[in-house]
């Protein structure tokens, strides 16, 4: 039976690399994007070229319940079931407690944390229709340790994703659905480009990582595939896999 995976944030960065990694496994993919439709369609074409039997794009604002409901309805017309959901959509927020406005706080929590709740809830019926299913959430090292450049709302949102992952894993285990997360350190994407746009900045990021590397979206995608695929991780649920090149704080 065909494997179907939906990736939010699939138009760019970690989500795109994950969708393409799934395509190379021969899985069909649904690439969800917020506004970069052209990039999402290009990713879908690339997914088909790499081996996805089917590749679709859907638009969604993960923080908007109405938009998420419409997306779930659209997806239910495109695919018979979903085996894999990857919640990769996210926004970065910088700033400490005095310079984070309430508006900025609420927007970050809404997209990064409420978005995971809304999308998972809306797609649960399609996950339950599949013979096997798993959810992989993209958390962050910012949710594990305070010693990061990200702001307070971002760190809180990603710690929330970790808590949600662990609780959902227990709740959905009786229904045969595994729920795990990855927690990457700096990964080279649009989100982090302002931290990596000079040789000096790149050296600084490398020096944060004992392995001396800058992580790539493909490094995360490989770990997401591991957690998503029951042939690789059947016995793992409620786990947070750190992808941090050895960074501990
Ligand atoms: P990115 O390159 O900036 O891509 C962000 C993706 O999220 C895009 O596909 C974007 O869609 C989508 N998105 C943003 N807001 C959305 C919304 N309201 N509704 C639906 N989709 C939305 O980011 P990235 O670096 O790949 O990050 C992916 C995930 O990894 C995020 O959750 C991020 O927090 C996490 N992460 C990143 C790093 C890092 O160093 N890069 C480290 C740890 C964790 P459009 O293209 O349509 O705008």
Q: Could you characterize what this model shows?
A:
By secondary structure, this protein is α/β, with parallel strands linked by helices. It has one domain (4-187, 216-243): Rossmann fold, CATH 3.40.50.720. The protein is 46% helix and 15% strand. The protein has a seven-stranded parallel beta sheet with strand order 3-2-1-4-5-6-7, with helices on both faces. It is globular and about 50 Å long. NADP nicotinamide-adenine-dinucleotide phosphate (NAP) binds at residues 8-9, 11-15, 33-36, 39, 60-63, 88-91, 111, 138, 140, 184, 186-187, 189-192.
Looking at this protein, list some descriptive labels.
7 strands, 249 residues, binds NADP nicotinamide-adenine-dinucleotide phosphate, 46% helix, seven-stranded parallel β-sheet, Rossmann fold, alpha/beta
* CATH architectural label: 3-Layer(aba) Sandwich
| Structural Rg | 17 Å
Arrangement of strands in the largest sheet: 3-2-1-4-5-6-7
What class do helices, strands and sheet pairing give? alpha/beta
Describe the global form.
globular
* Biggest beta sheet attributes: 7 strands, parallel
Q: Determine the number of helices (DSSP H or I, runs of at least 4 residues).
A: 8
CATH superfamily: NAD(P)-binding Rossmann-like Domain
């Amino acid at each position: 039976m065909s494997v179907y995976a939906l990736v939010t944030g699939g138009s760019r960065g970690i989500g795109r690399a994950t969708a393409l990694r799934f395509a190379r496994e021969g899985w069909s993919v649904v690439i969800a994007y917020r506004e970069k439709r052209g990039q999402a369609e290009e990713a879908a074409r690339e997914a088909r070229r790499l081996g996805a039997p089917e590749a679709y794009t859907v638009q969604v604002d993960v923080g908007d319940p109405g938009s998420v409901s419409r997306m779930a309805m659209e997806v239910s017309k495109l695919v018979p079931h979903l085996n894999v959901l990857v919640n990769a959509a996210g926004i970065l927020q910088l700033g400490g407690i005095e310079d984070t406005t309430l508006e900025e706080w609420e927007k970050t929590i809404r997209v990064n944390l409420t978005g995971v709740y809304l999308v998972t809830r809306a797609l649960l019926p399609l996950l339950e229709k599949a013979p096997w299913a798993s959810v992989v959430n993209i958390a962050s090292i910012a949710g594990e340790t305070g010693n990061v450049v990200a702001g307070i709302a971002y760190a809180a949102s990603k710690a929330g994703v970790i808590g949600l992952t662990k609780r959902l894993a227990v709740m959905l285990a009786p229904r045969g659905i595994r729920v795990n997360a990855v927690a990457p350190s700096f990964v080279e994407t649009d989100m982090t480009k302002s931290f990596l746009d000079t040789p000096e900045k790149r050296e600084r990021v490398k020096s944060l990582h004992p392995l001396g590397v800058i992580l790539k979206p493909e490094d995360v995608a490989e770990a997401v595939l591991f957690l998503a695929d029951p042939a690789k991780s059947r016995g793992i649920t409620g786990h947070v896999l750190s992808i941090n090149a050895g960074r501990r704080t």
